[in-house]
């Protein structure tokens, strides 16, 4: 009798301890979430809106065995968000480019349900060959700003060649402008590099003159009052800006240089959509790798590894987009 009562008391004690353990875990989880929100609020930054351009990287070892149905499903799940205007479907070997028409048919129904039109394109080739490079470069900036109001969506099927061919074409075009008959390619490349450095210095000088309001105000005051040495003062301040002595402007200048590079690539390829950078990159494969994805589109993108393509699901993309919208972005801050 005494042994039975002892066993009952022991079981009751175990149940009570398990209940206390569950309550402690619940309280700790609640406290941790509240503390995490408080730390995020103190850290600053801002929650970004849903992405407008999503890049999908299919980094499977057997690229020939990638399921077209799976690839189309992943693109369709991304297009389910009204904010998404472009999807870059990257597959290194280029097998998906051969199935562009099938992708178009698979995704047309999804876009029709949303009341939008869809176009599946391969590479960075221009959709309108009659427009010249100047027109494409001028439209590149408008493509990024007006993407949120457009009802047309684009799926770009990219391969490894689309990562380096535009850059090589831009370099070749720049070097050809400095080529000397009978000269070596090395000399032409050096001349092009010097010209590029001069252009960057000039852009930095102009950007500094536009953004440095205190200096411009001081210059205007010197000129208005006829202060002796005012011209020399303004020249010295302008020289300081051009020499990069204002460190808080370096990040802005780098962003402007990157934007000018994308505009140059748009002029070379004839496609304004190359200037639209993805905000979110989804990697499908056994390991996290970009697999040669265009480097000029990875400057400020958030990269998330989803897992093997065979296990792709709409829930995985929803979780990735939700995580992206919860992360405080500080790019350019």
TrEMBL record:
Domain of life: Eukaryota
Keywords: Magnesium, Transferase
GO cellular component: dehydrodolichyl diphosphate synthase complex; endoplasmic reticulum membrane
Record pathway: Protein modification; protein glycosylation
Catalytic activity: n isopentenyl diphosphate + (2E,6E)-farnesyl diphosphate = a di-trans,poly-cis-polyprenyl diphosphate + n diphosphate
EC assignment: 2.5.1.87
Cofactor(s) this protein cannot do without: Mg(2+)
Molecular functions per Gene Ontology: ditrans,polycis-polyprenyl diphosphate synthase [(2E,6E)-farnesyl diphosphate specific] activity
Homology family: Belongs to the UPP synthase family.
Protein name: ditrans,polycis-polyprenyl diphosphate synthase [(2E,6E)-farnesyldiphosphate specific]
């Amino acid at each position: 009798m005494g042994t039975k009562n002892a066993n009952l008391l022991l079981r009751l004690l175990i149940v009570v301890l398990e209940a206390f353990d569950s309550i402690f875990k619940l309280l700790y989880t609640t406290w941790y979430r509240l503390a995490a929100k408080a730390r995020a609020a103190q850290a600053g930054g801002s929650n970004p809106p849903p992405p407008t351009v999503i890049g999908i990287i299919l980094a499977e070892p057997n690229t020939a065995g990638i399921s077209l149905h799976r690839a189309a499903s992943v693109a369709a799940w991304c297009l389910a968000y009204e904010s998404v205007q472009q999807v870059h479907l990257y597959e290194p070997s280029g097998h998906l480019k051969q199935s562009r028409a099938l992708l178009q048919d698979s995704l047309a129904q999804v876009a029709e349900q949303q009341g939008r039109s869809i176009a599946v394109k391969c590479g960075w080739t221009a959709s309108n060959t009659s427009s010249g490079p100047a027109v494409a470069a001028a439209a590149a900036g408008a493509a990024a700003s007006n993407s949120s109001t457009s009802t047309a969506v684009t799926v770009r099927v990219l391969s490894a060649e689309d990562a380096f061919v535009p850059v090589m074409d831009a370099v070749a075009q720049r070097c050809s402008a400095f080529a000397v008959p009978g000269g070596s390619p090395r000399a032409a490349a050096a001349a092009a590099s010097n010209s590029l450095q001069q252009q960057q210095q000039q852009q930095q000088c102009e950007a500094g003159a536009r953004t440095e309001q205190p200096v411009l105000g001081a210059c205007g005051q010197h000129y208005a009052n006829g202060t002796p040495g005012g011209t020399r003062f303004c020249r010295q301040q302008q020289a300081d800006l051009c020499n990069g002595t204002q460190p808080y402007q370096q990040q802005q200048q780098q962003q402007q240089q990157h934007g000018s590079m994308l505009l140059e690539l748009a002029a070379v390829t004839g496609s304004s959509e190359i200037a639209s950078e993805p905000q979110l990159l989804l990697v499908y494969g056994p390991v996290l790798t970009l697999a040669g994805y265009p480097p000029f589109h990875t400057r400020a993108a958030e990269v998330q590894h989803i897992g093997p393509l065979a296990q792709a699901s709409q829930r995985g993309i929803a979780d990735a987009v939700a995580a992206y919208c919860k992360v405080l972005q500080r790019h350019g801050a």
